[in-house]
Write a structure and sequence with these properties.
Distance between the termini: 78 Å
Low-confidence stretches: none
Largest sheet: 2 strands, antiparallel
Number of helices: 12
Strand order of the largest sheet: 1-2
Number of strands: 10
């Protein structure tokens, strides 16, 4: 019996040591986490001895222990597949394989909403921007990309979907924009009018067809002549991996179908562009006219080719 306990203890501590020993293995690129991982701790810096060395070392180990991606994925699979809950703080595990971004939950539930004063401040600031832009002889257009669960909330967990609210910042701000005379393209209304699902199941953004429809809507609102992108030739490939899927299951990704439009290559990038997440991107298109300045968040990544094909720069 004593020997059995010793073997059990040895196995237990051996398993616990695997993450430590694994730190000797070259670390794979941590591309799935939308944050900066902890730096290696230092005993001394320019200010002298580092009194937070032990806490810094703990944070570093937590972010860099051996086989971290494998263990994180295994834990997420157990919690997600067996218990239907998310192992990542920033991801909501929905039904039928759907994933949602946690930061959209307050708006979905109608909690912690912007006050009337805050909504006015946004609308009035946009009105002042618009007035300045129009004095320079340009057109101004504002839009908001809807949260996925505002459009497709039927796969949200039951304990959230039972408390869903129709009161959303996206809805509440519209009358303030109208009152301030802001030129606004309502993508929420446009997407609500479509029977087809135009967002990815395992990503927080619209798919390429959704981006194409958004591009058509924005350019129509600007009075810009353009191709009807959704009527362009396209092909479907099951090769897209979602941002939420990468955060939750970094080594067990589920590729989704994506639509790729043919012929959207009339524009060229100016200089070296690493990705559509670059803070500043410039394009040129000799076959088009006019110029556009777009301030964007990550929804603009899939939108960029459609607008870049419609403007000279």
């Amino acid at each position: 019996m004593k020997k059995g306990y010793m073997i059990y203890a040895a196995l237990f501590f051996g398993l616990c040591l695997i993450p430590v020993l694994g730190m000797a293995v070259p670390e794979r690129e941590q591309s799935s986490e939308n944050r900066k991982l902890a730096d290696a701790p230092v005993l001394k810096d320019e200010g002298g001895w580092n009194l937070d060395y032990l806490s810094d070392a703990g944070a570093y180990f937590q972010d860099h222990f051996g086989f971290r991606q494998e263990l994180v994925t295994a834990n997420a699979l157990v919690q997600g597949k067996l218990f239907g809950v998310s192992a990542a703080d920033s991801v909501i595990q929905g039904t039928d394989g759907w994933l949602y971004y946690k930061d959209s939950l307050d708006d979905y539930l109608g909690t912690n909403q912007m006050s009337g004063r805050a909504l006015f401040n946004v609308a009035h600031s946009l009105a002042m921007m618009q007035a300045y832009v129009e004095r320079q002889g340009a057109d101004f257009l504002f839009t908001i990309a809807p949260n996925k669960n505002s459009l497709y909330g039927e796969h949200m967990p039951y304990y959230d979907s039972s408390r869903v609210s129709e009161e959303k910042n996206l809805v509440n701000i519209k009358p303030w924009l109208e009152r301030e005379g802001v030129h606004y393209a309502d993508l929420y209304e446009m997407f609500q009018g479509q029977e087809e699902i135009l967002y990815h199941k395992r990503d927080s953004h619209w798919n390429n067809k959704g981006a194409a429809m958004a591009g058509d809507t924005l350019l129509d609102a600007l009075g810009k002549q353009h191709l009807t992108f959704t009527e362009a030739p396209s092909e479907r490939r099951t090769d897209f991996t979602g941002d939420l899927d990468e955060m939750l299951y970094p080594l067990a990704l589920t590729p989704e179908e994506e639509i790729y439009y043919v012929g959207l290559d009339r524009f060229s990038y100016v200089g070296e562009v690493e990705s559509t997440f670059d803070p500043r991107i410039t394009t040129v298109n000799p076959s088009a006219e006019g110029s556009l300045v777009m301030y964007r968040d990550s929804f603009g990544n899939a939108l960029l080719p459609f607008l870049a094909n419609s403007y000279a720069d």
